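Now for a chain:

_____
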Amino acid sequence: MAKALNTTTLLISLGAVMACQAATVQAATVQQDSSLVDSPDITVSEQQHDEHEHEHEHHDDEHHHDEHKHENIEKIVVQASRSGRIADEQPIRVELINREEIEEKAAMRPGNISMLVAETGGVRVQTTSPALGSANIRLQGLYGRYTQLLADGLPLYGNQAASIGLLQIPPTDLGRVEIIKGSASSLYGGSALGGVINLVSRRPGDTLNGEALLNITSRDGQDFTTYIETPLIDNMQGSLTGGVHHQASTDIDKDGWIDLAGYERYTLRPRLYWRGDNGQTLYSTIGVMSERRSGGTAPGATVSNGEAFSQTQDSERLDAGLVFNMPVFDTLTLNTRASAMKQQHLHGYGLVTEDDQHESYLLESSIAGYSDHTDWVIGAAYQADKFMSDTFSAFNYSYQVPGLFSQLDYVFNPKVTASVSARLEQHNEFGSQFSPRVSLLYRPGDLTIRASYGRGYFAPTPFVEEIEAAGLSRLEALGELAEESAQTASIDFTYTYDDIESSLTLFGSDIKNVTTLESFASNGTGLPNRVRLVNAQGESQIRGSELLLRYYWQDIKLTASYLYLDATEQVAGALSRRDIALTPKHSAGFVAMWEQHGNFRAGFEAYYTGVQRLNDNPFTDYSKPYWHLGLMGEITVGRFSWFINLENLLDVKQTDEHPMLLPNRAASGQWTTDIWSRNDGFIVNAGVRVKFGS
């Protein structure tokens, strides 16, 4: 048992630009919302806040307009924005993935949430380790370590979840996913510089219900997940989610390197929901995860030095969290949130073993209020992150970050609403950090315009993407590093006419002091054999736009999206600039879904990824564009839903373009090039979902 390579890579903020938050807001029912409210400002007791919650619940989602057109509209509250107003009327833009889409993606990949978030506009899931398949989430071109991953508003996976963590979260018990793009440091601290992804769990009802899902794949993978919800005692409900997941190590192209890492994973998460007679609510959860993952060279194969190089990671995670809300007087709500996470990792990099542990803690309390024109919240928080390595203790760190935060939403008139939020933190290593955010909503009729500007910071840790992939053995002890800082801004236009939705977002970011790896020679040969972390010169600059079009025709929904990114960084030691690696300038998607709720669904997906600049790839400097095509179908008969999914119909593999293995080991310790395409080839999965209860 051992290990904690959690990406506490907190690194960042300051510059100037435009970065966005696109998409929309829709969520679960009022029941779900009022009990799960993650943040003080959004939590309002049912009794005292009926009228105000009515505003909350009105959060309708342009992104899922079909439900509003063809079904009874469910009222909802969005947790992630810390705002008490309707989605339509709140300046902060939140994009929502609802339960219906979660079920679609769970049929495609029930073992983790990577596909669930990857197919959202402006979101890119970037593979960081060709050996283990780990990945992080990039929002609108910003580095993946800047994305804060929350569960019901709590950092249960750490203030910055390690890349592998994304692959250890099953979607079974999710009610919705909320995404805020652009700096959200004023809302959640330094680890949310690039944005927030909040995983909101399903809220149990008043009867026993549940489901079980069994899935198998053509690559010798199996998943079994289950979800049960039930009333327990008066005013209390509970849910339990569990999963068992297996994947056989697979060398698809027979080059001696495993393309699909093997793993055995077990997860268990109980949740409790309680509502008091006077409007109090309490949500609590405990999570347990255990995984054994392996990759590297296939049995009998070697790398170029003639030796085998296996790469393994054993993970154990235990986390716990609670959210408590209590009405105070007629218009105030007290909110307390707390969470703790402990994760151990035992890494194997060839002959090197790294044993480490990561811990993360949060304690937060706030008071929220409202009036006819105003929502406000003010609170205090304490966050702590610790990393302890038994093997390389020179990289141990302990960050303690107390802070104060506030947010004010003000409605000037029915067309104009403004939101101002700010956070002041005292970092024990990087001193005082001030993170403001200003958002403005203007809604003249059917057109909705949102503009946002924010600043934030990120406290450096050793775990940039290359180090997560290669380990600490070749990393020089950290020198003096400055915190990364950034400014982001965006302007968003949304227009809906009959059955057509359209959205255009223009965004940008300027990032200073980006932490990057620098290779150097330490053995007198002149050949780089070690790396060190340094703050990059100049600014990383990102400019881009998102376009979304959606059309509804009877039971058919058509969605088209396009993302343009101009992401550049300054070349070290020069005045010239170059594209940021692994950032396609052009990407697009098209989805056609035909669905009759409760009977069947059939869908086709096509995603295009454009040319990317590659770092230290001896075979090519730029990737080739590629398409990813998929087909899925599901039919429901009574309580049984049978599904089949065909992924990567064109059988795209990066190794069809060039070898994955390097001729010589990189200075960081990696034996492979970065992944810019896919390496799993054509794959089919099929299974059955069984629902039970009333």
The mean pLDDT is 87.
